Amino acid sequence: MKKIIIILISAVLISHSISAQDSSKSASVSGKITSKGSGIPYVSIFLKGTTIGASTDDNAEFNLTNLAPGFYTVQVQYVGFKPFEEHIELQDNENKKMNIELEPDVLGLEEVIVTGNRYRTTRKKAPSIVNVISSEIFQATQSVTLSEGLNFISGLRMENDCQNCGFSQVRMNGLEGPYSQILINSRPIFSGLAGVYGLELIPSNMIEKVEVIRGGGSALYGGNAVAGTVNILLKDPIQNSFELGVNNSFIGVGVDGSDSPATDYSLNFNATVVGSEQQSGVSFYGFNRNRKPFDANGDSFSEIALLKNITLGSRLFHKLGTRAKVSLDFFHINEERRGGNKFDLPNHEADISEAVEHDLTTAALTFEQYYRENDLLSVFVAAQKINRDSYYGAEQSLSDYGNTKDFTLNTGVQYNAKFKTSDLVVGIEDTYSTLKDKKLGYLDIDNAVIVDNEIVSIPHTNTTIISNQKMNTFGLFSQYDLRINKLKLSLGARLDSYSIENEESDAEKKTGNVFSPRVNVLYDILPDFQARLSYSAGYRAPQIFDEDLHIESSGSRKVIHVNDPNLQQETSDSFMASFDYSRSYGASSFGILVEGFHTKLNNPFTNEYSAPDENGTVTYTRVNAEDGAFVQGINLELNYVPMASLKLKAGFTVQESKYEEAQEFDEKSFFRTPDSYGFFTIDWEASDSWCFIATGNYTGKMLVPYFGTTIDNPEEGELRESDTFFDVGLKITKTIKIAKNNLELSGGIKNIFNSYQDDFDSGIDRDPAYVYGPMTPRTVYFGLKFGNILN
């Protein structure tokens, strides 16, 4: 760790010391950006290979001043339009005028992405398929958090895994949450503890977009990128802007059996300030949410947890001359959630309570320096710290309070070199994390601290350290992309060396060296027709995962998860092939993608569960299955834009996920994994001010274990097959122009036909993990947004 920090500091100092600044800055570039004759405000303009940039004003005009004479490449990028590039030469004291006409990109094929190869390229030129969840999708689907928007990408499905606290995860190509690597601004600092509830922690208003790559990504991003990679990119400060939004939802309107709808209120704001010459800029964002618990079957126990979230964050940059820039990210999330019953009483006085409070702080610092024409050196450090107080207990237990502390540090250096027909990425990266989980023991009521007849604090006795894990992974990675006429070949590899130690366990320190190769081939059969083939390797180290930090609680039993002392790393081999056709016909555009995937899991993790002990505790022990497992299937995507005002998008997945040999319940199939699922969105801009949006999610049948009290042998449980679900929503928005600002009013219904689970277990002895299908019942919502730029 010390060595890599020294390398980081040295790289920054050397890069900054040798960057020369030209004192002769007498030229400028100005102009206007339009599309089909109309000006486009708030468009970003850059000089390629430098940090020099600007954005168009309300009149769609821009001005780049104080430029040294010489050769430049002008770049223009804006969502919904194809990128623009033009080479220019500036003379002394020249003011060059440019009127730039942008071409619409209604299918998003020319959108710039960074996740596929760890450098900026367009989706159409990327050798692997990269799907993008834009701010428009979050807006169209009324997704106030990241988790709600993930259902609208092929191969992805969000699921709720706990009736009490709402522990959720995203499945990608049939593989559960820990098989996907979650990145924040391309950094793997989203820890196992953050993954328990983290996808619902992150508000959508802090996200610029989310890039999703299906298939193994360990060659670039290290462990756990077996099913794929989800990269959360935060909003950049580009132009002066502000936005304020309010949303109010009523969960469970008209649902039989529920007492009354639960309210879900959220408030968010965004503001950005950029210097006059864009030398520096800063953005701020905030989010406040208050969701009441929802009881679907009238048994006084919640099916959707109480939730309170306060998020504050900022992102800023400062340019160190014309070819260097430093940027800083910071955000803090405080979230409280609780499920069970008797919410007006302390946790230990409820019949069931699963409650957690997170204090999550993330910070990241990045230095970027351009060399030659377009080479880029990046030096980065990112950290995340979490403190979680928890209670997982039943029957007024005084002994089920806990505390977990987690810290993750990611540092690295990356160099991107561009040549005439090829690109090279090389880098080193180190990720260090610590996790300490402890059970606080019994509350000592007799020694409570009382001030003015009120209990201020209650001490705990018999505190026990459950886990004290330290993990370090050092990685070397490289990727080389070569373009030969219609063919693009991408070769990548990563060597990781990891060590995992639990100081509270007798198990030996786990170490391993993992080589993860990657091969991608892109071939342009026709200008509008592409084929892709890929092979990639992935792995999961034998560490503590998110489900280990969640405890299922009921009056009859408690479920905990542990790793077998002999647990070995799991590896994977992923194969993917796709055909991608897209074409514009006059005013309409059409695109279709067919993607086949097959992932073979070697030494796959599976669970062995014990009989309940004298306290009703059931232990799920993670072990390696004797034989392998596989997931395979087909993803289909359709984009159709018959006219500029109407957009249709749909995706569907057909798959199977199985172990080679039978596991729990003498069954080979993965549980909670439907063999088919999909989505659609229809966006119709009826006029400049009215917009109508329809959305839908289909979930096929799946196998779900049940250990409730309505069966003869709840200790042994039984395997049930769920129904199919079709969740349909409708949203209407009205935009009103107020001076140079916009006021947007919206309203709609999610899950109109209440396609929702109707056999929840009930009472204190219920099985809280018997949850499947859509995450919310019929929900009516209203929203308001005001600002000068509305997403």
Protein model, in words:
- Residues 124-229 form the TonB-dependent receptor plug domain.
- InterPro entries: Beta-barrel_TonB, Beta-barrel_TonB_sf, CarboxyPept-like_regulatory, Filamin/ABP280_repeat-like, Plug_dom, Plug_dom_sf, TonB-dep_rcpt-like.
- With 791 residues, the protein is mainly β.
- The protein has 2 domains: 2-101, Immunoglobulins (Immunoglobulin-like), CATH 2.60.40.10; 112-394 and 405-787, Maltoporin, Chain A (Beta Barrel), CATH 2.40.170.
- Helix content is 5%, strand content 57%.
- It is built from 5 helices and 47 strands.
- It has a 22-stranded antiparallel β-barrel. Strands 1, 2, 5 and 8 form a 4-stranded mixed beta sheet that branches. Strands 4-3-6-7 form a 4-stranded antiparallel beta sheet, with no helix packed on it.
- The longest helix has 17 residues, at 2-18.
